[in-house]
Amino acid sequence: MKYIKDLKEGDRVFDIYLCKHKQSAVTKNGKPYENVILQDRTGTIDAKVWEPNNPGIDDYDTLDYIEVYGEVNNFQGALQVNVKRIRVCREDEYNPADYLPVSSKNIDTMYAELKGIIGTIQNPYLRQLLEAFFVKDETFVKAFCKSSAAKAVHHGFVGGLLEHTLSVTKLCDYYCSAYPILKRDLLLTAAMCHDIGKTKELSPFPENDYTDDGQLLGHIVMGSQMIAEKAAGIQGFPHGILAQVQHCILAHHGKYEFGSPKIPAIVEALALNYADDTDAKLETFKEILDNNSDNSGWLGYNRLFESNLKASKIDGVK
Amino acid sequence: MKYIKDLKEGDRVFDIYLCKHKQSAVTKNGKPYENVILQDRTGTIDAKVWEPNNPGIDDYDTLDYIEVYGEVNNFQGALQVNVKRIRVCREDEYNPADYLPVSSKNIDTMYAELKGIIGTIQNPYLRQLLEAFFVKDETFVKAFCKSSAAKAVHHGFVGGLLEHTLSVTKLCDYYCSAYPILKRDLLLTAAMCHDIGKTKELSPFPENDYTDDGQLLGHIVMGSQMIAEKAAGIQGFPHGILAQVQHCILAHHGKYEFGSPKIPAIVEALALNYADDTDAKLETFKEILDNNSDNSGWLGYNRLFESNLKASKIDGVK
Amino acid sequence: MKYIKDLKEGDRVFDIYLCKHKQSAVTKNGKPYENVILQDRTGTIDAKVWEPNNPGIDDYDTLDYIEVYGEVNNFQGALQVNVKRIRVCREDEYNPADYLPVSSKNIDTMYAELKGIIGTIQNPYLRQLLEAFFVKDETFVKAFCKSSAAKAVHHGFVGGLLEHTLSVTKLCDYYCSAYPILKRDLLLTAAMCHDIGKTKELSPFPENDYTDDGQLLGHIVMGSQMIAEKAAGIQGFPHGILAQVQHCILAHHGKYEFGSPKIPAIVEALALNYADDTDAKLETFKEILDNNSDNSGWLGYNRLFESNLKASKIDGVK
Amino acid sequence: MKYIKDLKEGDRVFDIYLCKHKQSAVTKNGKPYENVILQDRTGTIDAKVWEPNNPGIDDYDTLDYIEVYGEVNNFQGALQVNVKRIRVCREDEYNPADYLPVSSKNIDTMYAELKGIIGTIQNPYLRQLLEAFFVKDETFVKAFCKSSAAKAVHHGFVGGLLEHTLSVTKLCDYYCSAYPILKRDLLLTAAMCHDIGKTKELSPFPENDYTDDGQLLGHIVMGSQMIAEKAAGIQGFPHGILAQVQHCILAHHGKYEFGSPKIPAIVEALALNYADDTDAKLETFKEILDNNSDNSGWLGYNRLFESNLKASKIDGVK
Amino acid sequence: MKYIKDLKEGDRVFDIYLCKHKQSAVTKNGKPYENVILQDRTGTIDAKVWEPNNPGIDDYDTLDYIEVYGEVNNFQGALQVNVKRIRVCREDEYNPADYLPVSSKNIDTMYAELKGIIGTIQNPYLRQLLEAFFVKDETFVKAFCKSSAAKAVHHGFVGGLLEHTLSVTKLCDYYCSAYPILKRDLLLTAAMCHDIGKTKELSPFPENDYTDDGQLLGHIVMGSQMIAEKAAGIQGFPHGILAQVQHCILAHHGKYEFGSPKIPAIVEALALNYADDTDAKLETFKEILDNNSDNSGWLGYNRLFESNLKASKIDGVK
Amino acid sequence: MKYIKDLKEGDRVFDIYLCKHKQSAVTKNGKPYENVILQDRTGTIDAKVWEPNNPGIDDYDTLDYIEVYGEVNNFQGALQVNVKRIRVCREDEYNPADYLPVSSKNIDTMYAELKGIIGTIQNPYLRQLLEAFFVKDETFVKAFCKSSAAKAVHHGFVGGLLEHTLSVTKLCDYYCSAYPILKRDLLLTAAMCHDIGKTKELSPFPENDYTDDGQLLGHIVMGSQMIAEKAAGIQGFPHGILAQVQHCILAHHGKYEFGSPKIPAIVEALALNYADDTDAKLETFKEILDNNSDNSGWLGYNRLFESNLKASKIDGVK
What we know:
- Six copies of one chain form a homohexamer.
- The first copy, chain A, is α+β, with helices and mostly antiparallel strands.
- Chain A has helices spanning 107-118, 124-134, 138-146, 160-178, 184-193, 198-201, 212-216, 218-232, 239-251, 267-290, and strands at 12-26, 32-40, 43-49, 65-75, 78-88, 298-302, 307-310.
- In chain A, the strands form two sheets. In chain A, strands 1-2-3-5-4 form a five-stranded mixed beta barrel.
- In chain A, strand 6 (298-302) and strand 7 form a beta hairpin.
């Protein structure tokens, strides 16, 4: 397969791509045509279907995987595929992972690591709660492992939610070793569950957009409610422990203005808030630098960080 | 019964009061005594038990209703009861309503009015939801009608939650007549349910203080979850309607910084936010003026209103 | 008359329109031409006058009503009128109401309703003050009834100021019935007068833009001063009442950061602030939904409401 | 006369003082007595009238000038006058200036300087406006020259308004020499008038407290209205100039959150805002240092300046 | 030695304490006496010297170590030492560590651990910089190891600066293992140096108060300047590396409003900001819980955390 | 020389310009060309080099001074130079001052005036400090006199730093005459030095952009450090005076959120903050008006001033 990032003017294209976006349009002369964005894991490219009613053009739609036959042109300095034929593909013809941004880490490995940590939780109720989600609920596990942690900002790729969750959990584990005041079972349970509501807030890839419930209720409240529902299925789950886990979820954004309806009142909620924030910001900074890896100077003002950013450098510096 | 607000220096006291607060102390000479605050619906008064080990002093505690025998003294300009005998009373000896701040409106009348409004809701699911709370769930109804709407600020009295809820609901009903864009069934359902979480956030009178769940989860999230649980018991309750009702609850404080995890996204949530805020602020202003009814001038700077307040006056003004 | 919203490519145009905007320009070859925006109550359309020096093209200007002869073309997907002839019309040839956005409610009816409310004011001074504006000052009445309530945001149409004022006044009247603490004469007088300064802050339609005085002084201060001047003409108007009415005007934006030089200090000023804000926000939301009536989903992030907005829906929802 | 700051334990007092405050009270035994605060220009002292019904005690009140006969005691480390006789004095028996904080500068000299500056204004309308206030309106001149510039903060003494106004005007005059862009006639007129509303916002000394109008309308809006009224009496005063002067008054606090209903839109309004702010802050700092003249170190955190303050020192510093 | 926390009413005292505070006063009868606060590592107690001119009372002062002979009384419920004799002690009579709050961790061990980390720094310039401070500059090492990290908030004890620095450094080291993007040499150098300015901002124990330089310049700017001065003594220290280390120091408070003159622009500055904030907040929370170890409920609203705080609990919870 | 502001369509160009910017591009057909911006002191103009590989086109770069031969065309309403030949010039062929924005005031005169003020400083240490910078350090003097005070906002021209510094210093001198509390030697020294760090924060003209050090450390901290270094070279410079001068530099932005790591604690720091702010804002307003000198109306909303701005006018106003 020829990846989009490798296409050059004049290339002939004959491969399967994800149709990220399709929009019908009309030329000045009133002729219909279609604007299309093709995607694979290496990027996206614009395409035009000038004869959408041709028999060679299947009845395709946004988010279909389509086999495209066409030619790469240069239009005003940007590459563009002039599409001659389109065929909608069957599920067995392609591997979605080739068309989506994915975690650079292995999903199975990360999931195994997460289960390993669950095995270290001593409190029987908290351990059952974690297993109810991460071991016994296969639908949840599948959604959780494929979900992104965000629509746009950090960890916005397949496996991103798992990667972020694992990273936060391990950072919390370090905290527990450094600050004995922290109750490890409570903190690690909250860490593993803190973003589970995102499996409902964002639709699955390739769409990866806010759902109605996501917009109306948000992952924080949905996550808290998911925990209450799972705990209701565990014999004798102490209400007081449940309330503390829910509190950690509700408070993990740390401040009202970031959408948390509660401010951390117990030290584990505070620690989770710091771990989540630290991981999100360092990962975001990493992604900015990755996207500017050829740039050795200042990257321009960044609104999130409220600063002009720069790649640090100490080797060979005068 | 002699009300606390009518006590004068030299009076002899022999009546039942609520023991709002009791604290043991020791005189400079090492003699134990007890500081007590007595309460009835007209106010509170300090009291001293100088001989707590006397046989005439029952084994009483904070929040007991106690029969007090003693004398009113003046200590440094403030009245104080010198207590000689204390007897703890049985439930049938007193009427709690005589000892607590209560709504100036009749609770039964207000409750009937609320039920009357429920009878006008057309959407069968929303009507069932309201009836599940306000008609069929007797424990909830009892708690709801006795609860205050707040610990300290506005509507902080028995029946306050009902009075506030009814007032907000009727204001929303006026909105519906003035702004046809509003969906009355949705808005009025949300209005009636918007503060139901307060029955769990605050403990019942006479304590009326934040519960653990109230501190950890808050009435907004608990109210949203209560609705989800009740709706789960109604056959075929449409998820999309449930999400909109929950959204109205979650967003009714209007802004993140006021503890709402969601900002109003639909017009009914916005209207509820305005009705709740309008009623709370006008009631608060009314209570300030009531507490200063003898004051015809400026009342001093008020932090909530960010202004020096004054009773308006147009009759007989030059 | 053929409305602008109904024009199609290829149509021949021969009708009177408001010239919303006219700008001279030069083609690359140095030939002069004119860019024009035509408006009627249904919308606007771009137009080009390629031969501005033709004898068939009158000497017209921005805000003239002009009879246009031409042809509708499609340029880069947008419609455009190629204008061949222009004639400036006399005042009796057109009805301005056909060319401007107007209230969907009848202006005469609303004005009668406002006068009806004035008739219920008991305080003789306040009633005289209202009559001095809304009954006896014909120039003011004419300006008030035609004015918009805003340049851009809500109620930005002919009659908008009257519609907004009446709506706020009626909402205040409802408050008076629900909160007996409010002094109806004072509150309703302030409600009716709260935005009278807008008749000076905005120039009349069709321009509807900020005046110099509007920019330098603002409608709040000008409104307060207008009231002082009218009251000076009423024998024995009590200074203390005047100051309270002026205070309500000055404080009706509620906070310094919204341009009020005073924060509500009396309960009527507070109520007016809530009524004004409630009406403005609900009307704005309504106008957003009206402008997106074909959209059944999320409308996108709205800066004023700090939220992604959506039309609510409960009928037929699953 | 023996000044309050010089009184010592054991002194016998027999002099005239201002009765700053009088409050009736009752001893534990039910005996009435009176708490009094006596004031002269050097400070205040507490006093007690233990036999208020004695024939030697006149029927005096707060803000009376009273002749006091008594003895200075030490009560819990603070001095206190035990008052035996009180006589209310006639206006010709005392000089109020001996009992009030006064400007350290001569009021007549400052007033003459202000009139001198008025003589340099070229624009005939602005000059007439200034003369209408500062020359022809004797009542205004008298009030203006005696008024303080503030209740509590800076320039809170007799003549303070005049001193502040003159200082701001001269600073603006310096600006005009340094920044030719500034229109001197406009800026200096606005500078001289910027706080005239304070003559109505604060009651005269010795009370010097906010008036009802001050609380409800504020000196900014009242000052703007005073200018409009005076200008109405000047034949042909150009409306456009009036609006610019009023704008400078309205905008001189610089920001909405400081109570200005308009933000500076012309450069003279901006300059006035800076001059007013600079003078107020430097004078406030001076008064803080004056009040701590014996303190050579850090003065503690000051909320207005958001900093711990210190007297600078360069002579003899190591 | 009898510790202050173990004193009881009636005890006879004859031990050495730190005189935390001494203030002369006068009784109502004009007799001079002295208020004193005595301190040891377990707490403080009030004391009175009723006969300060007695020959048995040495000429002592605040911050002297004094041998006190006296008796413990109960005054209005609080213990108080009635002091009969005072003798100022020589340096060899006491161990300051017995009179000051100290880190619960061993200072030598922590210092050795810090030096161990310095040994792992690869970049020769950064390593030399660290050694110049933490190995070769004995005066600095001594001050650094005894200094507190704050006057009042967290780590306010002898060794607090070392403990905080080590904790932040180790947290940064964990970050480096989890986020390969981070340059360990740069980050750990900045972490070890981030608060070195505190050795100049705070005076040494037992005073532990802000110095003049601390108030005027602050530890952030002083720390940055100390680094520049040390680097100037290292042959060939690359300016570009120095600027990055200084930037990390300047930006380690993360935001302007927390006193950083620069916002993190490189990822190491961001990581340091998170590590510093995380350690400070978790330690502060720990100290709050330590101070309330007997309290099993809510601890009350805490301004720093903007929340009512509570000790979490999962063992034995229902 | 023909200035850019005088060029017209059809003109032939043959003159030396500063190449402000150069960017290589490719036409749709794949032909390389170059986009260039030419600058002289009167403005900038776009230019195209359609045949960059022609022998007549030298190997030039951004910020070179180049002799251009070409023709002025009109492209879509904007002028554009079609460049035929380019030659890179030697330093002696042009005067940079012809190509850069420069102060309208004479640099030598301003520098002499600054030195004159230094001559009035009495304190020997402060005078030596000023002379060490402004008299003896020729490299510094040269950089200081040519530097701009800002990249974009006010005083963004050659000599701007000197002009701003002198203006601030003179305003401070006026303050000293009006407010005797100010220590003139300290305030004027701080005023003259307050922005010296800008010589390192911004690269020299024609680039005039932030340096790496400017981004990482900022002119406030660098200026403070420059003063410390210079003072270290002056025998016996009192540390306490140095700290106060540094404090004035560090605090001259007045608030944390404007990048000052310290808030003014001494009155001279406060005065400097006002002088700097006043001069910056009045100069900025002046530059806005200069750039809109042909505009007699409202200039549009300005974010810095948070207001719609207007040129004031009193002559000939009705």
